[in-house]
């Protein structure tokens, strides 16, 4: 470390601090409030630090600024601003290895108060509202930064009366980041954020939030073509939910399980789960859905799940009737509407109505392209791959459009 300081070798300093504390790069990233890729660039000598970043790191870690020597009248390199900045960077990173002073720790804890968790949740809520009609990639950087902020806040909130509330807010932030990455087609990152959401929900000791995040991971796995794993996760969520839970939670989880059964071709089991969900919503006070459910889980919502189940089980007549019931008087967001159009296209294809099927798939593709949703585009691709009906001009047009989308240029027809 002395040699690294003498030569201002920032990469060596950061790596030595990480090794000394027994941290992974991810843990160091969480400690300083930056991404793991940023830390990796620092370690590899590809990322320099500014004086402002030094001050920011000090503030986040509770390091008194008087420990950071930015240079003074007696410094030999005072006349060289670059050397002075480099020495400040090295001193700041070295200070990461120092324990917080007794005076600094209470000051960090004092920042957590009764408005901390609601503020974090309000940020996630605003991001979620933007997601309805904005590309996930446009929101992802902000969402990731918010997940990191929530994690740092959660670390500071330990041993305070607000720790559970902050953990719940941090779980919501991670769950939304998972949703965005699923929409971007980044399954690995989506799983990672869902796992973080589940872990933080347990730290919050919120049974409903735990079930919601685990059930969301289950639904993701079912949609990612691993219905057996998704169903196992959904059953585990049901075990944690237990008897006597709010009807909304029971109904939603039953619908997730129905999706898993349908994907495995278990029609009777799927029908039983949908019937359970329908009974639950009949006795649910949907005017006030329980947190973390934001919207009422009512009869049209269950009808939508019934439609999806019937699509997977290749029951086109029942699927189309259920879609009509689900859309009566409601209008989903642009991306969710595009996903549902692909499922409706499948139902029409199963019924032999190729023209309507490809019209709906084409509309979904247009929305997915406009909003840069890999999830929607992939759904359209899968629909086209699974189509086994007669060759139609509509299919050729969709092929050409898919080629253009996937290659970034017009296709030869």
Description:
This protein is mainly alpha-helical and 413 residues long. It has 21 helices and no strands. Helix 12 runs antiparallel to helix 13.
Concise structural overview:
This protein has 413 residues and is mostly helical. The protein is built from 21 helices and no strands.
What Rg do the Cα atoms give?
26 Å
Give the overall shape, derived from the CA principal axes. Answer: globular
Indicate the structural class: mainly alpha
* Largest beta-sheet details: none
Number of helices in the DSSP assignment: 21
Helix content: over 70%
Mean pLDDT: 80
The termini sit apart by 64 Å
Low-confidence stretches: 61-110
Strand content: under 5%
**Would you list the SSEs in sequence order as H and E?**
HHHHHHHHHHHHHHHHHHHHH
How many runs of DSSP E, i.e. beta strands?
Answer: 0
